[in-house]
Amino acid sequence: MSQLQKISISYFVALMIAASINYIPGLTDENGLAFGIFALDLYDDSLHVASALWALIAGLMSRNAARIFLVLFGAAYLGDGIFGFFTGYGFLDMGIFTNASLGMELSLGRSLANLPHLALGGFALVSGLFIERRA
């Protein structure tokens, strides 16, 4: 199994954990905010599960499938995190289309809310583009 496939399968695990956050007692506050920072709904959970299954399938299929997953997933999630800083909403959950922009903000809360997508997306994109490159 290639390193890209292992990374892709690790994304399956990470995304399934993200999808389960709302269902683990103590991880959400009285307002339904995960870790007191951001809200996850059924749509978000479904998106995380679909992404996780894509990661698993790609990781089990081949090195090339894993690379494609990492590049496409990485670009989408990184972009979503960047949009979160500029508007307060992402595009993956259609938030930028259904809510008025909250404007650019570099607060701790907004940073922590967007950090998972920036980190997961950035690492996936860099991995897909630069790990195990063949001529």
UniProtKB/TrEMBL annotation:
Keywords (A to Z) from UniProt: Membrane, Transmembrane, Transmembrane helix
- Which residue ranges run through the membrane? 7-26, 46-62, 69-92, 112-131
Q: What is the protein name stated in its UniProt record?
A: DUF4383 domain-containing protein
Q: What species is this protein from?
A: Parasedimentitalea maritima
Taxon lineage: Bacteria, Pseudomonadati, Pseudomonadota, Alphaproteobacteria, Rhodobacterales
